[in-house]
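User: Hand in any protein.

Assistant:
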Amino acid sequence: MDDNNHKQQYLKIAMCQMNVVDNKDENLKKAEEMILYSLKDDPDLIVLPEMFNCPYDNLKFIEYAENRNNSCTLNFISKIAKKHKIYIVAGSIPEFDNGKIYNSSFVFDFNGKIIACHRKIHLFDIDVKNGVYFKESDTLSAGNEITVVKTEFGKIGIAICYDVRFPELSRLMVDKGANILIFPGAFNLNTGPVHWELLFKSRALDNQVFTLGVAPALNNENDYKSYGHSIICSPWGNVLIQGDYNEELLIYKIDLTEIKRIREELPLLKHRREDIYSICKK
């Protein structure tokens, strides 16, 4: 099999579960170190976690926010992608635009060009009794666009963390042709143990696609403590690889032909009764 066909069938993914600290320069240095270390395994796509340059904290979102037109973080990732000819999903950063701050994920192609940006649609506003309290809406604004990006590996859907809880969004991305759904995320120690794996398996099984969740490592010095456990699930709903709480680089090669095979063996999407129900974007 030649390299071109190989790349169409297989996709090797590097997930950088990095430890995020309260220092942007250190976070960018860590991201670069993990990206460069992953290159020895020749990945096709590298994914960083949600808020990879910034502690997950409303006050820090304000302090670290950058405009995409003069963003040191995005320029930094762009140079790496271009130099090493690699696709990078740059987790997410606090993006400042027109007086608002968004939780935004940027996708870079192997020329270092931004080919997609997803602004988190569903804001994480929760109050779990005897658990975690957080309101992203105190600082962040919600995006309103469904993000599917065309790559040489096929179409990839991009969403962020809390977005994974809403099955309609995943289905709409799949309806737009996405065969892989990537969610940079940072579940916490309350919701993570019970919901993280379950949600990624469910979205994969519902839509017969690969799902990826890439999280920061657990940092006990941060007020918000990430669950970690970056994950890839198959179109059959199996967990293919999953990390733990610690900083680590996870690399896995997925076989994209599994999507077609599983959809032929168990044709869920063909069996939808769209004469009775449908999901559509207004």
Notes: The chain has one domain: 3-265.
